[in-house]
Specification:
There is one protein chain. By secondary structure, the chain is of the alpha/beta class. The chain folds into 3 domains: about 10-105, Helix Hairpins, CATH 1.10.287.70; about 110-235, NAD(P)-binding Rossmann-like Domain (Rossmann fold), CATH 3.40.50; about 260-335, Alpha-Beta Plaits (2-Layer Sandwich). It is about 55% helix and about 15% strand. Strand 8 and strand 9 form a beta hairpin. The protein is elongated and about 110 Å long.
Length: about 350
């Protein structure tokens, strides 16, 4: 844990001021009180430390010098005291409380996502999760990235994402998925391998810059491998060849006033919609969402499910609708026999 240290400049300035005042006080008592150099120095030291000097100076000049040294000593003590308070309250103690608060939040997380690497790609991933209201934790060893997480208010764990203890601290055992998007392909391979060993069932999406790295990431345990360069290339080609299609997708996926979300919803064993057909449930009429596809366990996607399609336990629905429409559908299919 890092905490704020007393500034070296402040410490050197304080030492310099003390030396100058001590020298001036010593010389003053030698001249004004006819003291020896050692006696003048000890008198000055006693006054600066607010211990006192015993007998009062005989001359008016010596008395004024004593008052000055006493006031200076009190001022220096106050300065040191306020510096220590600033060090404790503004630095160490504040970061200690922040760390405890972060640990509490991390321990309470369930079904969250880990974003390993907070570079350009990781920042975009975090923005999408934040926009969708999905809980996530950023894992990064770079201090600048951690400072940016603090600025955004994101939960984070500082450390190497390939380190098992760091992943455990980020709650990998309770996580729904992990995004490996550190700057290097080798780093993503190590992160993926570590995550797969610790949490064999976790969903892992990894970034790859080359086809060779894609193969290595898949062997390391990544469920999906994404190349930002290939995605960007396809997007640029589509913008050139099919500009109106790209404009439409930009509008319906959140770039415009209308936002259409494509979501996946899995049917549990106690849902009230089980055993009923899409037509019987009147999903389109009741929720406004469209069912694009149905994935039954052990089967391929039915990309054009008919109205007579019966919904069963374990089915995954791919739907399209606005956030409000999707929420209505989610409430419909998650309703259980106990609550209906």
């Amino acid at each position: 844990m890092r905490y704020r240290r007393l500034s070296p400049i402040r410490i050197l300035a304080l030492i310099g001021v003390l030396i100058c005042i001590a020298a001036a006080g010593t010389v003053g008592f030698i001249i004004l009180e006819n003291q020896s150099p050692m006696a003048g120095f000890l008198t000055t030291l006693n006054l600066l430390s607010t211990v006192g000097m015993g007998e009062m100076p005989a001359t008016l000049g010596g008395q004024l010098l004593a008052v000055f040294l006493i006031a200076t000593g009190v001022g220096i003590l106050l300065y040191v005291f306020t510096s220590l308070i600033d060090f404790l309250i503004g630095g160490y103690l504040a970061e200690l409380l922040e760390e405890r608060s972060m640990k509490k939040k991390l321990s309470d997380l369930k079904n969250h996502y880990l974003i390993c690497g907070f570079g350009r790609v990781g920042e975009q991933v975090a923005g999408e999760f934040s926009k969708s209201g999905k809980p996530f934790v950023v894992v990064d060893a770079d201090s600048a990235s951690i400072a940016l997480c603090k600025e955004y208010g994101y939960l984070f764990v500082e450390g190497d994402a390939a380190n098992d203890e760091v992943l455990r601290k980020a709650g990998i055992h309770n996580a729904a998925g992990l995004v490996a998007c550190v700057d290097s392909d080798a780093g993503n391979v190590f992160v993926t391998l570590s995550a797969r060993v610790i949490a064999p069932d976790i969903q892992i999406v990894a970034r790859a810059n080359s086809e060779d790295s894609r193969n290595k990431l898949e062997k390391a345990g990544a469920d999906k491998v994404v190349s930002p360069y290939s995605i960007g290339g396809r997007e640029m080609a589509n913008l050139m060849m099919k500009p109106m299609v790209s404009d439409y997708l930009e509008v319906v996926t959140g770039g415009g006033e209308l936002e259409i979300r494509v979501e996946q919803l899995k049917l549990s064993g106690d849902s009230t919609v089980l055993g009923k057909s899409i037509k019987e449930l009147q999903i389109r009429q009741k929720t406004g969402t469209s069912i694009l596809a149905v994935k039954k366990p052990g089967h391929n996607f039915d990309t054009n499910p008919g109205p007579q399609t019966i919904l069963e336990e374990g089915d995954v629905l791919i739907t399209a609708g606005t956030p409000a429409e999707t929420l209505t559908l989610e409430q419909l299919i998650t309703a259980t026999t106990a609550t209906s």
